[in-house]
Design goal:
This protein has six helices and no strands. The radius of gyration is 28 Å and the shape is flat. The chain folds into two domains: 70 residues, no CATH class; 42 residues, no CATH class. With 144 residues, it is mostly helical.
């Protein structure tokens, strides 16, 4: 299709361009999951490992497939920021492709909020002396 016909924003245009590839990816994903499930079912049915796992534990396995599609981190960050107050904090983090594990990221955020910062980036925050003006600095060196 001709790109001139699409007057959508960049992300929407990219979705239409990659539609066939996305459909192929999903089809291969389903076949791969089916094959892996068959393999794990055979492995878990082995009598030697029954003491460690149940024979039907293979059904609890979840696979995560990540397509190698370029993402626009700026658009994702803007979307997540605009969702503030509308959706939960977890959903905001899920919209970001740079966050792999939402649970661990939420734990890190909680830890950061609990701990006081070790370093202060404000140079004048802890000084008890008043700030010197340029005139005082110049007169200190004897320059008039």
């Amino acid at each position: 299709m001709c790109e001139r016909r699409f007057r959508f924003p960049t992300a929407r245009r990219r979705q239409y361009k990659l539609l066939n590839t996305t459909n192929l990816f999903k089809a291969k994903q389903r076949k791969f999951e089916s094959g892996m499930n068959r393999r794990w079912k055979i492995i878990f049915s082995n009598v030697l490992i029954h003491s460690k796992v149940a024979p039907d534990d293979w059904a609890k396995l979840r696979y995560r497939f990540t397509p190698n599609i370029p993402s626009n981190a700026l658009e994702e960050a803007q979307t997540a920021a605009q969702l503030a107050g509308i959706v939960s904090h977890r959903t905001q983090l899920e919209t970001l492709s740079i966050v792999d594990n939402v649970d661990s990221e939420m734990k890190r955020l909680e830890e950061e909020n609990e701990v006081e910062p070790l370093y202060s980036f404000d140079a004048h925050q802890h000084s008890d002396e008043p700030e010197e003006t340029d005139d005082e600095q110049v007169s200190e060196y004897g320059i008039q």
